[in-house]
User: Fold this.
Amino acid sequence: MSTATKVRDYSSLITEFAIYLKEKKSYWLAPIIFVLMALSALAFFLEGSVLAPAIYSVF
Assistant:
């Protein structure tokens, strides 16, 4: 699977999720998803750094 295909799949997933939130009026889910994505990105990017033990102790 090429990178372009993966990006297209993820963008369609995000678009569908946004449509779901809009239709169901579940706006309270958006901050929860955003925080989980931010923590996941933080753990991913700091995995090989010196701060990794400090980040893993939070989880």
Summary: The longest helix spans residues 3-24.
